[in-house]
């Protein structure tokens, strides 16, 4: 009888109802939502008449946000699984250079160049993960090593083969290629033409493109960003594997004891991060028509910052793909918005650092208030 009485407080604690407001406060997306509202409020006040919110202005910051979003999804899932990948930026440059070498220098069909590039980069991601789980070394150290290895190869390969560090001609080589169109084309061109004819979006007044809509379609980069965000969110919140990701980052030892294949989960997340970086790289080279050895610099840190702004913990086991997407949106809006607001562009990273610090402090303090942590 006494035992039952003692157990009841614990029982009550486990079944205690949490109000919707409290649930909202402990969501990882909270920092990203607050940051997004703050950023849009700022630019609506100071850059509303600058063209930032015209159809062309919206497309500008949406494309930049999509770039961050693609790599933030992979970084988010990996961080929730308790690991980092500092080689993302170098992987972007390396993947773009492989596509150029295979598709332009070696003359392969672009679809073959893209598929082989994906295979190589995802294999390197698997190698990163395998080394981490087999040696027990911090992923920070392992991927830092690959940051230098991949960046060195990105410079060495074109210099050795082409005697230069920039290889052009990618757009011409991809002309008419079915797989290349999935990374370098646009969709819904007819819809934007109709919107222009209806006077809902602007058209060019002069030049060779006079009369054409200023926005002529949705770039495939934005499509990839949306697909990856939806995929990552569903995987994380609606599948057993998503529970494994949280468990692997929260308490790996307890997860192993519960039957979670922690090593497999971590390796697959490294592979997915490499996949996202390769998607970014191929979209980028298709847009620019060239690959450069300096592409992707600092992207690994930008991806991690977007994820942290979105509410993920550096210690793993907590985070949200939607939050990471909002962090990426903040990146894009701030980067382009400062130009429209006539603010010195060099202040972008200052602004970003303030947002990052504010989001982290907000998330940490609210979680402490709600959970009673000290």
The global form is globular
Mean pLDDT: 87
User: Strand share of the residues?
Assistant: under 5%
Low-pLDDT runs of 5+ residues are 4-14
Give the tally of β-strands: 4
User: If strands are numbered along the chain, what order do they take across the biggest sheet?
Assistant: 1-4
| Helix and strand composition category | mainly alpha
Count of DSSP H/I helices = 17
Q: Helix coverage percent of residues?
A: over 70%
What is the rounded distance between the termini?
35 Å
**Radius of gyration using CA atoms only:** 23 Å
The H-and-E topology, N to C, reads as HHHHHHHEHHEHEHHHHEHHH
Largest sheet, described in full?
2 strands, antiparallel
- The oligomerization state is single chain
């Amino acid at each position: 009888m006494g035992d039952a009485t003692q157990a009841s407080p614990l029982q009550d604690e486990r079944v205690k109802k949490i109000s919707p407001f409290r649930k909202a406060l402990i969501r990882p997306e909270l920092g990203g939502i607050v940051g997004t509202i703050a950023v849009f409020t700022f630019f609506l006040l100071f850059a509303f008449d600058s063209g930032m919110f015209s159809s062309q202005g919206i497309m500008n910051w949406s494309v930049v946000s999509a770039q961050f979003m693609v790599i933030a999804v992979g970084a988010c899932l990996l961080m929730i699984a308790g690991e980092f990948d500092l080689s993302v930026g170098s992987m972007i440059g390396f993947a773009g250079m492989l596509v150029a070498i295979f598709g332009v220098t070696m003359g392969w069909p672009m679809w073959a160049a893209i598929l082989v590039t994906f295979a190589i980069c995802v294999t390197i991601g698997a190698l990163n993960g395998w080394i981490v789980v087999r040696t027990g070394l911090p992923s920070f150290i392992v991927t830092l090593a690959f940051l230098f290895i991949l960046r060195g190869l990105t410079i060495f390969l074109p210099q050795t083969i082409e005697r230069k560090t920039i290889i052009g001609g990618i757009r011409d080589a991809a002309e008419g290629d079915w797989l290349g169109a999935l990374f370098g084309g646009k969709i819904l061109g007819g819809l934007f033409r109709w919107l222009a004819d209806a006077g809902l979006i602007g058209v060019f007044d002069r030049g060779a493109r006079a009369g054409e809509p200023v926005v002529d379609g949705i770039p495939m980069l934005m499509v990839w960003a949306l697909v990856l965000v939806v995929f990552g969110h569903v995987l994380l919140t609606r599948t057993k594997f998503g529970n494994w990701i949280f468990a692997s980052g929260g308490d790996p030892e307890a997860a192993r004891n519960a039957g979670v294949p922690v090593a497999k989960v971590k390796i697959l997340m490294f592979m997915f991060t490499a996949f996202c970086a390769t998607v970014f790289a191929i979209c980028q080279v298709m847009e620019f028509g060239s690959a450069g050895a300096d592409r992707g610099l600092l992207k690994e840190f930008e991806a991690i910052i977007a994820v942290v702004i979105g509410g993920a913990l550096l210690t793993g086991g907590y985070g949200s793909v939607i939050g990471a997407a909002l962090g990426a949106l903040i990146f894009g809006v701030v980067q382009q918005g400062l130009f429209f607001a006539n603010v010195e562009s060099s202040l972008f990273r200052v602004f970003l650092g303030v947002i990052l610090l504010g989001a982290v402090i907000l998330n940490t303090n609210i979680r402490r208030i709600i959970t009673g942590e000290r």
